[in-house]
Amino acid sequence: MTVGSPSWLEALRLAHRGHAMIGWDFSVLSGRLVADEPWWDFEADCRVAMSSANRILDLGTGGGERLLGLLDGIDHTHRTIVATEGWEPNLPVARSALSDAGVAVIAHDPETGAGLPFPDNSVDLVMSRHEAFDAAEVARILAPGGRFLTQQVEARDAEEIHDWFDEPFTYPEVTLPRQVETLTAAGLSIATADEWQGTMEFVDAEALVTYLSLVPWDAPGFTVDAHVERLAELDSHRPIRVTQRRFRIHAVRP
């Protein structure tokens, strides 16, 4: 297919309108997207923390697939495990995935400003992978000695996408120093704080457009037709590389 041809353009249009994220599933991009991973293992961090916690909360569980994987291999029979999810299409997916494991999934969107629907001092472990959180609310519900583990997408993640398509950064406050500051102000002690930078590589413009359909918050104003020239330019210099930025924090309530 020739870059810039009518068939190429139509393929991009179909890619952009033909996909939507359900849960947290990038399988449609298998073999077309290669992404580095941070040097730490956040899943392993969570498994270790879960092994000594009795009351566990997973914020922003997506379709529940990640939490289900964490539960595999640990005895959770006598543990109380709850998840939240703020994106409505994910709720039935997560509830279906986690019901057999006895995990309740509660609708909660942290961006509404609503507090977490849990009592004070009621949770031993809060996990948040790529989900917004209110530091004061996390501190409130953690029991003394309770832990908060989070991995976040840094504010300047995929800066090339923002530059190519003239999109502002949606969450400029999501940086390691700022999050450490808010958690400390909420009364938590920081045990671990790390940053990482890596690369995400798309085989062609169609893969990039598919990705933008799955994560529209990276470029909410993007349309294929408005950026045909840019997409053709990118497609002529394959692969298309984008910078990833992540950070992790482990915090403890004294």
TrEMBL record:
Organism: Arachnia propionica
Top-level taxonomic group: Bacteria
Gene3D superfamilies from the UniProt entry: Vaccinia Virus protein VP39 (3.40.50.150)
Lineage: Bacteria, Bacillati, Actinomycetota, Actinomycetes, Propionibacteriales
Protein name according to UniProt: Methyltransferase domain-containing protein
PANTHER family tied to this protein: METHYLTRANSFERASE (PTHR43460), METHYLTRANSFERASE TYPE 11 DOMAIN-CONTAINING PROTEIN (PTHR43460:SF1)
Keyword Transferase: yes
GO terms assigned for molecular function: S-adenosylmethionine-dependent methyltransferase activity
InterPro entries tied to this protein: 23S_rRNA_MeTrnsfrase_RlmA, Methyltransf_11, SAM-dependent_MTases_sf
Residue ranges of domain Methyltransferase type in the record: 57-149
UniProt KW keywords: Methyltransferase, Transferase
SUPFAM superfamilies in UniProt: S-adenosyl-L-methionine-dependent methyltransferases (SSF53335)
Statement: the UniProt record of this protein carries the keyword Methyltransferase: yes
GO biological process: methylation
